[in-house]
């Protein structure tokens, strides 16, 4: 398969720079008038597929909101992933896995091996057992044409205590992660397949993102407080590689399919204007 970085660049060029989160938490199901069970989950997912599958470049299902319903919820996740991918949407599965050795290899196989029922185009991972612990996922992603987005500078208030901690060499943990990603992506064109997760709400990062040569997933837009205009302040020279992510701002427009689609298109237009 063509490398994820190349496929992402093509998808963004065709459909615009927008990732829509698919987060069926209980409050949102209630807002839509749906039951908080696997039937409500399936109706929610099917509606989102119908509304945006032909219009956005990337979707980001949050696996936990499907997993909470057990095997039947995971079956809905499998179906949702398949439907989006068949429609030409790249699926970034938000699983934030992080472990070592054979366990990390098993996580990678579950989500990145293209013969798996949960096969996705990319996943999120946590590097806080050491960047080297991600090697099984990075290797399988490269083999399968998939992508990996590594947590680097997150917007939750607990994040800076770890991510801004300074190591023996004087670099922060986050900068070390960014530098490691840059090494993996070195020489890739038009874009590397390993990205970083950098919250759109964090303001000026104090970190150098310019050499990463990979996609920068920017969650936190819309209901979480960030606007497209904040992206320039957060990402600076790395702005062309940013993939803005909206969840509630779009999903709150449901369950009406036309309303959902219109909200996604408005978000895409705003991001396109901000990113130039």
UniProtKB/TrEMBL annotation:
Domain Orotidine 5'-phosphate decarboxylase, residue spans: 17-263
Matches recorded under Gene3D superfamilies: Aldolase class I
Pathway terms, separated by semicolons: Pyrimidine metabolism; UMP biosynthesis via de novo pathway; UMP from orotate: step 2/2
Catalytic residues (positions): 96 (proton donor)
Catalytic activity: orotidine 5'-phosphate + H(+) = UMP + CO2
Keywords: Decarboxylase, Lyase, Pyrimidine biosynthesis
Source superkingdom: Bacteria
Keyword Lyase attributed: yes
GO molecular function, a single term: orotidine-5'-phosphate decarboxylase activity
UniProt-listed InterPro entries: Aldolase_TIM, OMPdecase_AS, OMPdecase_type-2, OMPdeCOase_dom, RibuloseP-bd_barrel
Similarity comment: Belongs to the OMP decarboxylase family. Type 2 subfamily.
Cross-referenced PANTHER family: OROTIDINE 5'-PHOSPHATE DECARBOXYLASE
Protein's name in the database: Orotidine 5'-phosphate decarboxylase
UniProt source species: Spirilliplanes yamanashiensis
Gene: pyrF
